[in-house]
Write a structure and sequence with these properties.
CATH superfamily of one domain: Hypothetical protein af1432
CATH architecture of one domain: Orthogonal Bundle
CATH class of one domain: Mainly Alpha
Shape: globular
Pfam family, one: HD
Protein name: HD domain-containing protein
Organism: Paracoccus pacificus
Radius of gyration: 25 Å
Length: 484
Amino acid sequence: MFEEHPTIRTTRQVSRLTIQRVRDPVHNLIEFDTQVELERVVWQLLQSRPFQRLRRIKQLGFSELVYPGATHTRLAHSIGVFHTARQLMTTVRKKSTENNETREKIALSAAMVHDVGHGPFSHAFETVGKRLGLKLADHEVMSDELIRNGEIAEILNNGFMAGFAANVANMIKKEGKITLHNSVVSSQFDADRLDYMQRDRLMTGSKHSAIALVWLLANLDIGNVTTGIDDTEVGTFPTFVIGPKAIQAAEAYVMGLFQLYPTIYFHKTTRGAELLFTEILVRLVRLVQDGAVERTGLPANHPIVRFAREPEAVESVLALDDTVVWGALHLVRLSEDKLLASFADRLLNRKLFKCYDIRSEIAHRVDPHNLSESQDLARIEKCCASIAQKLQQLESEEEGAVPRVFVDATERKPYKAGGSSHGHNEQIYVRTDGGMLIDIRQRSEVVRALSVYKLTRAYYDPDDGDARKIITDIIEGEITNVRH
């Protein structure tokens, strides 16, 4: 993955390499000049154990079950974020008087390390953590720990100055002084979003979500916007804003980001695989913690078993990655536990549960002409919530056995309007011809018209005819209730 470009060679030795190159499918050549302090330190970060682990964690988790090309890793994304952050920093230098070399280094380092704490299958692992109350399964908590302590902290502190790692961690957590450099790391136009939107689209082969990146970057400006809580103004902070010529490009950006969710991140097959993974990991951890390792099919020294025993130990989490889980499935499918054996075999061989799109069914039955009148929308919401509740109750009643039905319900807003002391950093501000800064919703009917994407689904064994009947009977009962 890394290409080395040597400097002058002699007959006795090769002089120190100064330019290191990464050939990237999104950004082409990404170069690191190791004679430059920042780039030398970032290159050292890439060689560290926590970063090399990211080679074995895919950016999109189980999306490759739907999009075979979606095998790109968290490592590739992190390098792309750093590269994009350097481009954004050029805008900061050109258009702001707030030039601060130390803050630049902190922001660029933060862009590089922001995802270092992701666990196997990324966000699916966080769902496991929430179910079991395991704080290090949260990638933000784990990233913070890795940045402040251990190998990454040593590289940052020795490469720059004492306390530098803590400053990087604070910027990622939005703690301490907020300057324009924070926008490079966290804003509507931050380096993270700008990289993954391009990378995920390219690697999945999706034709949705195209953005005019060059035009957006060319029309990025700097503005001071008001921040506050509710209706109380707290102060102002500098952030990226767009000029009036980039309204359409910004609309496409908002829509593109939004489209990634129904087409890729919330794809029914991906979510179904995540469901199986979650149930497997939760059951494994619980069995180990209950002293029943022999029922898992895994040896006592397996990384997953060690993690279950010491979930608060950083080393336990660092030992986990996608390959560890895939390898474990071959053993787990021979487990004494029926759920583990069944679900491991399903996930390993892509024999996933069937998806029943409850919300789509309810919407068609309640509002067949798609008029979206308020009373119909209210009936749809009430119906979906009630069905989900009843199915979840059925699922909980079957605890200990292999559940027959699982519920998946979530939503995604197309545009986050803020609402907290840091919330306004999530808004897109447009500079008008008169020099005023206004929210893009005030200028764009397209953004204003976008509605929240919601899903309510049930997953069931396609060979279990009774399971589908249970779902349809509950749906029919709820539709009858909302019509009366």
